[in-house]
Write a structure and sequence with these properties.
two-stranded antiparallel sheet; 2 strands; elongated
Length: 103
């Protein structure tokens, strides 16, 4: 099953206006409407990606991933040095396992 997200407009007369990619197979499908109120929509919604782009997505280069802003999102977390934090978490898990086995 393939999920395709489309933008649509519901007109006052009840007509639903949308554009489907031309290369979709003709078959039965289920239509699910996710209605958002104007206050719920944001500029971050994925309405700038066409269905054709979603169907033909080939992946991203490392440079594109870095430029996307997805890398480094934990920078505001109060963990100090990340390597030290990870090692502390590992040590805590080791100690928890030892407590479970010692009776």
């Amino acid at each position: 099953m393939v999920t395709i997200r489309l933008n649509a407009v519901l007109k006052p007369n009840g007509e639903l206006a949308y554009d489907l990619p031309a290369d979709l197979p003709t078959e039965d499908f289920e239509l699910v409407l996710d209605v958002k109120h104007a206050a719920e929509t944001t500029a971050d919604d994925e309405d700038d990606i066409s269905p054709e782009e979603m169907l033909n997505f080939k992946g991203l280069t490392a440079g594109a991933i870095l430029a996307s802003g997805l890398v480094g999102q934990g920078a505001d977390w109060d963990i100090g040095d990340s390597a030290e934090w990870v090692e502390k978490q590992r040590e805590q898990r080791r100690q928890e396992r030892q407590i479970c086995y010692v009776r």
